[in-house]
Every structure is written in structure tokens, then in C-alpha cells.
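Hi everyone,

Forwarding the result from last night's run.
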Amino acid sequence: MNKSKFMKVIQVAFVVRNLEKAIKIYTDQYGIGPWKIYTISSKTVNNLVKHDNKTDFSYKVAMSYIGDIEWELVEPIDKKSIYSDFLKIHGQGFHHFAFEVKNFDEALSDLKAKGKQVLQSGDWQGTKFAHISTEDDLGFITELFKFPKSYKSPKPEKIYPLKG
């Protein structure tokens, strides 16, 4: 049985060089927003892992919705995350789709059994995430989430544009 069956796309993510500039373009020129802005690092996320090694990396993210799909813009802060690797090799652009799966642990196990690697993972305030090496087969990286039963979106550092 294929336990990694993707049920629906829940997020599309892009790597950018300048998060503030990208947010303004998305908002002011295309009407996409508001954006919730967060910093991801060992101060905000537990068990940060890159290529099976516990590590510390940091990046800024901005999240908004178009319909029921979350759009994520990511700006690497240091040179340690898969996002900084991507930016160095490919420049700005599309990075990954995140999919809803029935069972995170089974889907992750199934993908590993197929020879896929966990590129980067962590636990952000109870939500586990894992980026999987599906780019050779699918043309993009896949992200999976395991949300806690009582999921509540983390409080953002900033929101752009501010209401009012």
C-alpha cells in the first residue's frame, strides 16, 4: 500500500533574496496578503535537522493564503539551511509544495523506503515538518506536516500590511 499518498496541496513555497521587497511586490502589485512574518531558528523551532545532522540554521518566512493554499516566501538568514543552498544554486524561485497526508509518520517512512531523504526537518511549536528529496522524480521538493490535535497558528512577529 502506498502510505505517502498526497491528499491535497496545502502550501507552495518560494525562496527569495529579500523578504521585505518580495512581500511588498506580492501585496502592492498583485493584491496578495496580508503576510504573517516569522523567524525560524533554534530559538523558535526544536530539533532542527539538515541531512540527518542536528544543526542550527535560520531563515525568515512570510505566509499568506490564496484560497485555502498557503503561500510561503522564504529568505535565508545564514548559509546553513536548504533554502540558502537552493538560492546559491538556482537563485530565487519555486522551492516546494507541501501536501496533506493521512498519516505523517507512515508517509515519511514510505518515502524513506523509496530511497528519499529528509533534507531538513524540525518541530515548530508542536507542528512537525519534513522536507523530502523528491526533486528527481517530481521536479520539486516535497514538504510534509504533522499538526498537533489542537493546532493554533503561531503568533507572528509582524504582519504586512498592517490593518487600519
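The chain has one domain: 8-160.

Cheers,
N.
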